Prior knowledge:
Layout: E1 6-7, E2 10-11, H1 17-24, H2 26-43, H3 48-62, E3 64-65, H4 68-71, H5 81-87, E4 89-90, H6 92-105, E5 113-122, E6 129-138, E7 147-149, E8 157-158, E9 165-172, E10 175-177, H7 192-204
Parallel strand pairs: 3-4
Antiparallel strand pairs: 1-2, 5-6, 5-9, 6-7, 7-8, 9-10
Amino acid sequence: MPLLLALAGLVLAELSAERVQQLYGVQALRVYRDWQQLLLQLRRDGNEINRVQNVNQFFNQKLKYVEDPDLWRQADYWATPLESMAKGAGDCEDFALAKYFTLRELGVAPQKLRMIYVRARIGGPASTITQAHMVLAYYAEPTAEPLVLDNLISSIKPASQRSDLQPVFSFNADGIWVGAGAAPNSSVDRLTRWRQLIDKMKAEGFIT
């Protein structure tokens, strides 16, 4: 049965077990089936916050944090959700992207979700050490304070409670935002990694 969500002209497709195993092996198939079960369960739950919480928990539990040089032997690699399921691991971008595509598939409106690149302070409140990081933000309403879905902590907190994160820019399938404007500043097609990710997902058959 085909899945229903359109993503910037793309539609997620429900792959057969044989196709998933052929592409990425038994590990991917096991997590993919758990993911399908999650979708089935959450489609029965009309509470959007419950969907956000459960998707965040699912990937934080199913994936282990591993940096790209160790996992992919590349300095920066955006994995498809299926690749992350196959590895059982990913870095911050992979967590955020898997959550994003899953919530979009569950019917969460595109304007409610953005990946946000941040500078994350590490080492405590007095630390001056930061590192690049990505989280997923959920906006219940256009002007609402976003909730932050982060692989580094299990709880979802409002942005005002994440003083350790300094936003740089945000994006989704509709565009790129720099600053707090209501409309995107530029097309997401400017992000080479995004274009490559979509091409890989098409090649997998995960989107059509």
